[in-house]
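TICKET #2291
ISSUE: user wants both folds in one file
ATTACHMENT 1:
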Amino acid sequence: MKEDNSPRTGETAARTGVNDHAWEREHRHPTPTQTRGILQRRRDAEAKLEQHQQEARRKIAE
């Protein structure tokens, strides 16, 4: 019989232990090195967005 693991039922999948380590590896907190990389990419994206917004404001003002 197939388990219904839909969010509507509120049930969770049965943990068999076979691939639990894979699930945990995918859902653990990032390492400090990964966090620094994430934060650097965020800062770069925010700077790029600000630059685009300033260029758009200049075009509107012209």
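ATTACHMENT 2:
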Amino acid sequence: MTNSLLSRLGERYDPDPRAMVVCLLGSAFTLAMLAPIADPANPYHAFGVAGTSFALLVSAAVLVGRWRRETPSG
């Protein structure tokens, strides 16, 4: 059941790795720019950090998943 679900999702959702790299680098740059002006009391800053962290984690997860699928297992 899980394998058929994953294969069906893999057929319908196939992200472009170049787009994920751009998202990864962009979100890492944005987090680096937000780090020196850390202001936890500002809700806009907290939302920006949370959203950028989410984008960074999702793009890294997609790239690792793609890498693991394409790497031949010995």
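RESOLUTION: both attachments delivered.
EXTRA DETAIL ON ATTACHMENT 2: The first helix runs from residue 2 to 12.
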